[in-house]
């Protein structure tokens, strides 16, 4: 195949950050790399979804259908959740201009790869009935018409009847394979007083939602209720308690899909395609009521290594050395070394192997923590670029720098020229490859969307991810990234951040264009002064409304990120800390050499996770001052001062005059943001040894003030400084306030007075 052009295969799925889909994608990537194929992930959502924004995300599927691809892998079991078999067939027929393979759903006339799920629900029913004597069951199913969900539900109910006759209770709820829907459903049933002693979910995501609802209701798992899942995703081993589930060979699905298409494309002979239905197996953990089995979660169908003591090169210390090497190899590929099997070793090598694996797991957890921290930091930087600058070039530069930090080798951003389902033309505005960044805004490079990028995809990289950019109901364009980031959750988070930032920049560009057009009209129509003055007043009002909208967008995005950091990031970090603490306890019970050192490492990880969670909460408070709504401006400013003092180690004091109150929530929010910006400027630029924040008030008005004893600056230059101070003045004007910047000897004082 020397000199041949690389084949390009599209991979249509919903979300790369969802563990099941990511596992199938990973298997496809591995096989594509072996065969010299370029693989492109087109991220969309479930077709015909009742959730409005999901339908907008499916622009990626339309793009894939029109693009110059050689073949397509379609995860029909995911994106066809809400479709009937006939509707799935209609959708697939629209893509039939190239070879197709369906993943997870057997479709007549189209090659399909899927797992034989039979026996999985039988094993769960047997285990819950015979081992844990459960009799009152809640079954969380997928969509009503979903074939896989129907099969799992039918197998479970039939086997219960075979085991127990009519001596059981079974309630079925449809939760569409979604975690939040399962959480809401279980919470609602608990509040209604429904009794059950086992929850059986048709996938792991719904089981996670059930665990969350039970924990919030104070119901103990597994003492009062057993919970099981289906899929054995990577997240299932980290739930609390670890989830008993059914393991599927998801990676093998991806590999088989690529091999099937490779035969169709002439890259492999037919002899290489040995199709088989991978059987499923029961993975027993703690959520059902069993003690944790030391199987080290041989999940995600990654290839397992087995080590035995014997004669020759593989005996004694040589086996342990090979085990250590394989742990390092797994870590270098971003995989959990818990998938390495060592149970066949004999004492004392078993204990030594356990220490090696435990150290590897601790390092893996630490790498996950660093990945989460790095992603959060980069997303904060992109959000900060939206707040500090609405210039499109600045935002594109921040995106390029952020993707490099996230381990993404290349990133391309294209915006559509027109509206519609899939516009024919787009303009490439950003091309970032390695350390080389090309900002092509404002005009960009015009190209047809069927090419995905001007001149097609570069051959330098083996796999790509295409994510749609949208804001509200507006389709903006798409983001193309190389799929080499170890963090599977980064692409969707990056997409959301970039969409908001680009929309803000486009609004600002539209505003500037409107201003320039206004100036032109004033110059050429001076003889129509009266009419033009009226147009001018209308234009100014529109500009003010737009500026207000931009600030609202900024506040909403800051609040959204703050909530995400607090609700998701902090919980994830806390979970990592808890797992590290559990790991520490397990290690301290081991007697083998190195166990104490590994336990200390796990303790360090737990301590670092706790510290990081605390820092993340501080960041969340800065972005989303929840205290402002709950406790008022004084409490929120107090937290802001405390966070700034901890961050800078600078002497910062807060002075509040007796009786200081402000009841208007809009005024309180803008005063808070004014204090936040002024305090950040003082901490960053003033080189002061002391900063004083004051909240004063009298019967008619209130005044907030930030003063420092630093180097100060000339107040006469305030009119020429950057966007930050202009935003301060604009916030002040919105609430009818008076912003003053005064020079002190030494230092500077920023104050805002507003009537009550």
From TrEMBL:
Residues 564-756 form the Histidine kinase domain. Residues 529-556 form a coiled coil. GO terms for cellular component: membrane. Pfam families: HATPase_c (PF02518), HisKA_3 (PF07730), Peripla_BP_3 (PF13377). The keyword Zinc does not apply. One of its GO terms (molecular function) is transcription cis-regulatory region binding. CDD domains: HATPase_UhpB-NarQ-NarX-like (cd16917), PBP1_LacI_sugar_binding-like (cd06267). Keywords: Coiled coil, DNA-binding, Kinase, Transcription, Transcription regulation, Transferase. This is Histidine kinase. The lineage of its organism: Bacteria, Pseudomonadati, Spirochaetota, Spirochaetia, Spirochaetales.
């Amino acid at each position: 195949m020397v000199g041949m052009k690389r084949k390009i295969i599209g991979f249509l799925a919903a979300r790369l950050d969802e563990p099941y889909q990511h596992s199938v994608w990973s298997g496809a990537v591995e096989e594509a790399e072996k065969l010299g194929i370029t693989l492109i992930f087109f991220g969309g959502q479930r077709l015909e979804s009742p959730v409005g924004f999901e339908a907008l995300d499916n622009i990626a599927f339309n793009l894939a259908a029109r693009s110059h691809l050689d073949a397509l892998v379609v995860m029909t079991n995911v994106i066809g959740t809400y479709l009937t078999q006939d509707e799935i067939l209609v959708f697939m027929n629209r893509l039939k201009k190239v070879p197709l393979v369906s993943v997870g759903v057997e479709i007549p006339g189209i090659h399909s790869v899927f797992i034989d799920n039979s026996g999985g629900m039988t094993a769960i029913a047997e285990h819950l009935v015979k081992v844990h004597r459960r009799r009152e069951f809640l079954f969380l199913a997928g969509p009503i018409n979903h074939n896989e969900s129907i099969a799992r539900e039918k197998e479970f109910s039939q086997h219960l009847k075979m085991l127990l006759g009519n001596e059981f209770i079974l309630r079925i709820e449809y939760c569409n394979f979604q975690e939040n829907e399962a959480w809401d459903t279980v919470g609602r049933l608990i509040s209604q007083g429904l009794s059950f002693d086992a929850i059986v979910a048709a996938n792991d995501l719904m089981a996670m939602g059930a665990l969350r609802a039970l924990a919030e209701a104070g119901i103990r798992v597994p003492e009062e209720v057993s919970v099981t899942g289906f899929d054995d995703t990577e997240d299932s081993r980290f739930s609390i308690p670890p989830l008993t589930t059914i393991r599927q060979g998801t990676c093998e699905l991806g590999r088989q899909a690529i091999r099937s298409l490779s035969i169709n494309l002439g890259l492999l002979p037919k002899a290489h395609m040995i199709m088989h239905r991978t059987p499923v197996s029961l993975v027993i953990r703690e959520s059902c009521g069993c003690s944790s089995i030391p199987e080290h979660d041989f999940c995600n169908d990654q290839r397992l290594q087995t080590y035995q003591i014997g004669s020759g090169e593989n005996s004694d210390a040589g086996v342990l050395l090979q085990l250590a090497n394989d742990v390092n190899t797994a870590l270098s590929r971003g995989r959990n070394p818990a998938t390495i099997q060592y149970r066949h070793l004999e004492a004392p090598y078993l204990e030594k192997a356990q220490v090696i694996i435990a150290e590897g797991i601790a390092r893996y957890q630490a790498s996950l923590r660093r990945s989460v921290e790095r992603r959060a930091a980069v997303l904060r930087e992109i959000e900060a670029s939206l707040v500090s600058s609405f210039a499109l070039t600045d935002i594109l530069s921040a995106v390029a720098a952020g993707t490099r930090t996230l381990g993404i080798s290349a990133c391309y951003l294209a915006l559509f020229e027109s509206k519609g389902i899939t516009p024919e033309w787009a303009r490439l505005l950003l091309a970032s490859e390695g350390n080389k960044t090309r900002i092509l805004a404002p005009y960009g490079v015009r190209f047809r969307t069927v090419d995905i990028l001007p001149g097609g995809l570069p051959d330098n990289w083996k796999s790509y991810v295409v994510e749609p950019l949208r804001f509200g109901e507006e389709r903006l364009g798409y983001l193309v990234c190389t799929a080499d980031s170890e963090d599977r959750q980064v692409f969707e988070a990056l997409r959301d951040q970039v969409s908001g930032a680009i929309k803000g920049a486009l609004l600002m560009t539209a505003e500037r264009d409107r201003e320039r057009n206004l100036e032109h009209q004033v110059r050429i129509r001076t003889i129509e002064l009266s009419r033009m003055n009226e147009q001018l007043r209308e234009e100014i009002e529109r500009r003010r409304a737009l500026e207000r909208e931009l600030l609202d967008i900024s506040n909403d995005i800051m609040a959204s990120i703050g909530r995400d950091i607090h609700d998701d990031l902090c919980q994830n970090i806390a979970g990592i800390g808890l797992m590290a603490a559990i790991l520490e306890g397990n290690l301290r019970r081991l007697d083998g050499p190195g166990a104490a050192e590994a336990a200390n490492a796990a303790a360090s990880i737990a301590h670092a996770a706790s510290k990081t969670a605390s820092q993340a909460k501080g960041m969340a408070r800065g972005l989303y001052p929840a205290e402002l709504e709950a406790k008022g401006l004084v409490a929120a400013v107090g937290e802001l001062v405390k966070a700034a003092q901890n961050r800078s180690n600078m002497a910062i004091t807060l002075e509040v005059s007796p009786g200081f109150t402000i009841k208007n929530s809009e005024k309180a929010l803008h005063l808070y943001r004014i204090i936040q910006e002024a305090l950040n400027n003082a901490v960053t630029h003033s080189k002061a040894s002391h900063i004083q924040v004051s909240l004063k008030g009298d019967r008619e008005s209130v005044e907030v003030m930030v003063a420092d004893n630093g180097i100060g600056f000339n107040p006469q230059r305030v009119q020429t400084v950057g966007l930050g101070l202009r935003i301060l003045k604009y916030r002040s004007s919105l609430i009818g306030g008076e912003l003053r910047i005064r020079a002190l000897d030494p230092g500077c004082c920023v104050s805002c007075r507003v009537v009550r």
